[in-house]
Amino acid sequence: MTPLDYEYLRKILKERSGLDLAADKQYLVESRLLPLARKASLSGIGDLVQKMKNGAEALTVDVVEAMTTNETFFFRDKVPFDHLRETMIPALLQARAARRSMRIWCAAGSTGQEPYSIAMCLKEYGAALAGWRTEIIATDLSSEVLEKSRAGLYSQFEVQRGLPIQLLVKYFKQVGELWQISPDIRSMVQHRQLNLLQDFAHLGTFDVIFCRNVLIYFDQDTKIGVFARLAKQMEGDGFLALGAAETVVGLTDVFKPYPEKRGLYRPNLVRSPSLVPGMPSSKAAARA
Fold it and tell me: How far from chain centre, in Å, is Cα 214?
């Protein structure tokens, strides 16, 4: 792969997905894209790039998906799901008692482990949520990972990563060498393809947004724009869960940290006018 090929791929990935590759990540690009080039009967990355430059849109989509498919597993990092069970759901049971409904958005749903972990948390509440309308929307840039999520089929290795054995027994059925999550849990999750760089107002407002382990790949201006738009889609007393390596601190004041709950944030109803959603403070926010 030539330096010019790499720069072209960096530019396309930034424009299409927000992925901000460092200058020294050629090895990562080659490991992800060489199998794709072979599958397309191309001799290497150079030919792949040339086809993209010639307008091969389907191939370009495949390249972006190959580069943005990230690792995930059930109840990843544990802490956000403790917050969901111990802080978010109890607060919403009280605050939404009149309307008896809650909406949760999993903004980087990948192959489904995160949204299904959320669904199992809700299911475990049992009678407390009986009669409630609970909606979980799982979105991702990649149509391929969304298809796997819809199927709810996982290998032995995948169900052994983070999934408590009692939940495996309770909510999964063995299908050959794979495990399939129950139709009851699958029906709790709606899947939609979505690029976080584009408008997502059509999704409506949410009580909880999980946007974990995706913003770490964006540059600062892109993060600011995404945070501003996330705030627009959240109820004033809602919750935002970020990944362990992500924060709003030093970037924006549209959200504020939830006291003593790592990775959990609330909308900041008293904030600087320059950072109110819809009043961008940067060129990236303006573009968003």
Answer: 6
Q: Considering only CA atoms, which of 43, 46, 33 is closest in space to residue 3?
A: 46
With left for phi above 0 and alpha for psi between -120 and 50, is residue 4 left, alpha or beta? alpha
Q: For the chain, where do the domains classified as CATH 3.40.50.150 start and end?
A: 79-287
In whole angstroms, give the CA distance from residue 265 to residue 100. Answer: 23
Task: List, in order, residues 6 or more apart from 78 with CB less than 8 Å away.
Answer: 162
**CA gap 105, 208 in Å, rounded:** 6
The region, left, alpha or beta by phi > 0 then psi within -120 to 50, assigned to residue 39 is: alpha
Which pLDDT score is estimated for 61? 84
Element containing residue 240 per DSSP (H, E): strand 234-242
Low-confidence ranges of the chain (pLDDT < 50): 272-288
pTM of the entire predicted model = 0.81
Q: Which helix (H) or strand (E) holds 170?
A: helix 165-171
How many CA atoms, within 13 angstroms, populate the side-chain half-sphere of residue 264? 21
CATH of domain 3-68: 1.10.155.10
Span between the terminal Cα atoms of the chain, in Å: 32
Q: Please tell me the predicted confidence (pLDDT) of residue 271.
A: 57
79-287, which class in CATH?
A: alpha beta
Residue 280's contacts (CB-CB under 8 Å, 6 or more residues apart) are 225, 228, 286, 288
Q: Model confidence over 84-116: pLDDT tens digits? A: 999 999 999 999 999 999 999 999 899 999 999
pLDDT at residue 214 in the model: 87
What mean pLDDT value characterizes the chain? 87
Residue intervals in the chain for CATH 1.10.155.10: 3-68
Residue type, position 210, single letter = F
**196-199 CB contacts, 8 Å cutoff, 24+ apart:** 196/18, 196/107, 196/108, 196/141, 196/226, 197/16, 197/17, 197/18, 197/222, 197/226, 197/288, 199/229
